[in-house]
Design a protein that fits this description.
Layout lengths: L1 H4 L6 H17 L8 H4 L5 H9 L4 H14 L5 H23 L3 H22 L3 E2 L2 E2 L4 H25 L15 H17 L6 H19 L5 H26 L1
Antiparallel strand pairs: 1-2
Helix pairs in contact: 2-5, 2-6, 4-8, 5-7, 6-7, 6-11, 7-8, 7-11, 8-9, 8-10, 9-11, 10-11
Amino acid sequence: ALKEAGTLPMGATLTWAFVLTFVGAAAKSAQWPLHFWLPGAMAAPTPVSAYLHSATMVKAGVYLTGRLWPMLAVAVPLWPKLIIPLGAVTMVLGAFVALRKHDLKQIFAYTTVSQLGLLMTMYGLSHYSYHEHPNLLWDVTQILNHALYKAPLFILAGAIGHVASRQFPELQGFFHRNTQARIMTIVLLLAGYAMAAGPLTLSCTAKELFFYQIYHVHESIPVPWFWVLVSAGVATGMFNVAIFVRLFRTLV
């Protein structure tokens, strides 16, 4: 409507407005190379980490990008060229670093960085269309899915750290210590299974829809970076599965 009324700025002005706004959104949602602040913020009390950093506050940048999507995704050609590479690098890097950490909260913090990268990539892919419809599938469900499994992971990381430790070397066989430990381990592993996008989880469907978005772009407009993005998505999924296996082998 704004465009038809002639009030929508075009050209360089619109591009610079998008770039500057996205820089703020990327910093808020811990996109590479500004990703380092989020794991550092995990020093906050566990409930804060769970409900602010993993579930709501850090999603503000992703949310802002989603709000800009109807106005700018098609109008600004730079949209996918800026968002997709940054999101994809953040997605893979976060999962890889998480796999190498030994502190539970650090592991879950970096997997949050990874998921935020996936969400940004999802909105970057929305620039393209598929059968004359926007290439955006269940974006709100993707965001909700992350909150549903990440909040329990942080709460349990804090609970386990309170009664035992958050360090992997000190959590060997934690499941067998007492009944309380068994309950916490089971809940943690269930949330970890969702993080790994195991079958019959909402996360499994969400990740499948993400790959559909990538394929839809290639099917509509063959792009040279198709296999690079597919490889990034597969690598991220493998790292998340490896993190779940590592959790299981350590705690059980």
